[in-house]
Write a structure and sequence with these properties.
By secondary structure, this protein is mostly beta strands. The chain is built from 1 helix and 12 strands; from the N terminus they run E-E-E-E-E-H-E-E-E-E-E-E-E. Strand 3 and strand 4 form a beta hairpin. The two termini are about 20 Å apart.
Length: about 230
């Protein structure tokens, strides 16, 4: 579930604030857990502030900050359940009648403040997200169907975490949705999203120095609704 507020100016400047909350509908967490309520488990939330500038019709730049709250890390130490993310993006788009196609490249840095072994994990994790999508504006109806696919690639995975000595694709995400424009300022966004995740978890034993590699796969389905307010 999410909400987004956007302010646009005529000179191409745009400022937005969004909140995205996620819940595991079929969580294995016990019902007595501190973060489990109403039969579902709070998974994580993303609070994002974005500043964007579109100097021309087909090109946009943006930069922003996201505060991530991890619901499955416990609540005793804020360094364990808080993550920070900063990003910069460039987006190129092309319109043909009622169709709009776009490509976005986003460089991102994920920051941890908890204690980590630099041979196993990065305190500053750099990734590249490439997103290709389209949307269609229906004639005489306030509906806008859309779809996109995004590939997430590591940029500085530690040596022992790399795949065959190289960086690797960490996630592939696809989504299809429908935006319903209630009026000039209010929009509802309904979507389905599928996420394929792949990660390589490294554990270096202190005594022997042996390296344990665990390949982790994730296949996640998400159904969401977002309220968008812009003026």
């Amino acid at each position: 579930m999410g909400v987004e507020f956007t302010k646009k100016w005529h000179n191409g400047i745009q400022l937005s604030l969004s909140e995205d909350a996620r819940f595991d509908m079929y969580s294995s967490l016990p019902s007595s857990s501190a973060w489990t309520k109403f039969g579902t488990a709070f998974n994580k939330s993303y609070t994002t502030l974005t500043f964007a500038y579109a100097p021309v019709k087909y090109f946009k730049m943006d930069a922003g900050y996201t505060l991530r709250l991890m619901g499955d890390k416990g609540w005793n130490d804020c360094n364990e359940f808080l993550r920070h993310r900063v990003f910069v993006s460039v987006t190129g788009s092309y319109k043909a009648e009622r169709w709009k196609f776009y490509l976005r490249e986003r460089a991102m840095c994920e920051i941890r403040t908890d204690s980590v072994n630099p041979l196993e994990k990065n305190r500053y994790n750099f990734i590249l997200r490439s997103k290709l999508g389209f949307e269609y504006s229906c004639f005489s109806k306030p509906l806008k169907p859309y779809a996109w696919v995004e590939v997430v690639n590591t940029l500085n995975a530690p040596e022992y975490q790399q795949k065959n000595g190289h960086q690797y694709i960490r996630r592939i995400r696809t989504a299809a949705g429908l935006k319903y424009r209630i009026d000039k300022r209010n929009t509802l966004n309904f979507y389905y999203r599928f996420n394929y995740g792949y990660d390589r978890d490294i554990n270096i034993k202190k005594k022997s120095g042996d390296i344990e590699l665990t390949e982790e796969y994730a296949y996640q389905h998400a159904i969401g609704i977002t309220y968008e307010f812009g003026w």
